[in-house]
Amino acid sequence: MTARRSRVKSPKGARAFDWFLLSLLVALSGSAFVMIREAVTTIPPQAVASIRLWVGALLMTVIMLSAGRRFPPLLARSARGCRLHRAWAPMLAVGMVGYTIPFFIYPWAQQYVESGLAGVYMAFMPVWTVGLAYLFADEGLTRGKIGGFALGFAGVVILMGPDAVSGAARSSAFAQGGLLVATFCYAVSAIIARRTRGVRPRVFTAGAILSGAVFSSPALFLTDLYTDQWSLPSIASVIGLAVAPTGLAGLVIIVIIKRAGAGFMALANYLVPVWAIFLGALLFGERLEPRVFLALAIIFAGVAISQRKSGNPPPAEGVAAMAGSGGADLK
């Protein structure tokens, strides 16, 4: 374990630009709830998942190529013959674990689990991530970080309300287990990305989403698509899902992990439900209950505590290891 941990140095403490990126990630990811709500009204969930991945992969490939980047060859020659290029192994892994599996689990599970309870389970992702980051990515695990993440989790539970928690007893245990698997997959993919070296963020994001799209494609042949029933708002929502919460958010995630660590990136999962609720109130006139503001205060307190005294030396390795800061990390 010591040898493995020494290969990935601790990330530096979060700076102003990292907080901006985290806020951007929250806004991009939080918009998914609104767009999924519209997309699944006329398009099957399996098709929504696969199409958003394919469109997102196309978008990120165009962005990558416009920056003068190229995919590495799929196969590399060695003395023993052809083998998978080392850059593709983590991209394929993240595509399957971080995109295909959870993108299918969540729409399926939410047929049997209330949306509030699904939101509570989403809060497990930061918990998984901080533990895995400590074991496999050399990210420190202090009392402040543990306490802050616990406080953030409590805030999400309060945000979703008592009905969400009590709904666990009457909801499918199998579906709830699926949600836990999905959040664990998100955490594992974050650690894989953290440990990957020598791949630029745009290349990594495009490759991972493309891999996820390829792995998701068989579902299209096993699903009744009913394309004649698809509405323009649903189609527009799928495209929006591909652009914001899939493509652009995927790029921001990789950059945050490289700059500030997987644990810091995972904090977005505490803030995304808050943004989604406020967005629902703004667009659909949904009522904001007093507990929303209490939960907001608790979540923000947890985020602040988890990041207190986090000034670590800057990383020399990790995803897309390169010099520079700020916007240079987006190359």
Intertermini distance:
32 Å
Structural shape = globular
What is the count of structural domains? 1
- Count of helices? 15
- Sequence of secondary-structure elements: HHHEEHHHHHHHHHHHH
Q: Name the helicity range.
A: over 70%
The counted number of beta strands is 2
Biggest sheet character: 2 strands, antiparallel
Strand fraction equals: under 5%
| Rg estimate, integer Å | 19 Å
Could you please describe the fold and organization of this structure?
This protein has 15 helices and two strands. With 331 residues, it is an all-alpha fold. It has one domain. Helix 3 runs antiparallel to helix 10, helix 5 runs antiparallel to helix 7 and helix 14 runs antiparallel to helix 15.
Features:
two-stranded antiparallel sheet
Quick summary of this structure?
The chain has 331 residues and is mainly α. The chain is built from 15 helices and two strands. A hairpin with a 2-residue loop joins strand 1 and strand 2 (81-84).
